[in-house]
Amino acid sequence: xxxxxxxxxxxxxxxxxxxxxxxxxxxxxxxxxxxxxxxxxxxxxxxxxxxxxxxxxxxxxxxxxxxxxxxxxxxxxxxxxxxxxxxxxxxxxxxxxxxxxxxxxxxxxxxxxxxxxxxxxxxxxxxxxxxxxxxxxxxxxxxxxxxxxxxxxxxxxxxxxxxxxxxxxxxxxxxxxxxxxxxxxxxxxxxxxxxxxxxxxxxxxxxxxxxxxxxxxxxxxxxxxxxxxxxxxxxxxxxxxxxxxxxxxxxxxxxxxxxxxxxxxxxxxxxxxxxxxxxxxxxxxxxxxxxxxxxxxxxxxxxxxxxxxxxxxxxxxxxxxxxxxxxxxxxxxx
Length: 334
Ligand code: BDR
Ligand code: CA
What we know:
This protein has 334 residues and is α/β, with parallel strands linked by helices.
């Protein structure tokens, strides 16, 4: 046996597909501070912001995180992704601007000192990198999607065969027993590209849906961002607009950690309880567009075709402790 081979085979890899976005950025913050996964690639996609801004924000933010980590993390390249949904539609961004700020990162980059470097980029499209990673990392790879599912659906269309060995796909999106957040029926990521979501949920691959049923309970009080050093101050600016929106909408002093929860579930699956069931998506242009139809009828059991593990319950306290413990690892948090 070649020296190190055994260890190598135990390494777990993750690919994060995201549309930063404030909570996407918080998810990357948690993920990069953990040794659980090694990251070879981050892919970006349209959603909270245009694809161009998502790509730029991800590159800036990855580089910002690297500058503040005690341990040296590799310079993870970011890849540009889909600009439109599979059906050619484009989401209005007026509400996203109110939630994530005009350029998607709250007030984080108003301070120009935080823009020192643009992290590594590439001209290779996101879907191609997803296919390559699935082929090369196989069962060691977990894919986490924090935005619309367009990149992943394109990758599945191009090379369905290579995904059969992938360990798991964790999707932040949808709602089983809850109303939506962008319309009464639909959650934002699914609404942005319902067709892509339908293709992923019906793929027969091991998919976990981390939707509003659990993410709506992942609430972190903004006081956690008070005080501390320059890193904490940057995150305080990052969440400024997002927190203001929460205060107006829900009269609450906390923020919802949608995307960090999805990545945390990939890292620590027992943070949530799931049920295995069929998930369909309304791809019409009608009032239920983007709704995830989660079949929670009893006694479906082994008859379910292409089941998805849908998260319905969350250990809130454990998750919040897990999340904060990773933020503490950054230089300038204290
Ligand atoms: C999802 O929508 C986006 O605004 C967030 O980044 C998250 O991925 C929550 O519905
Ligand atoms: Ca997101």
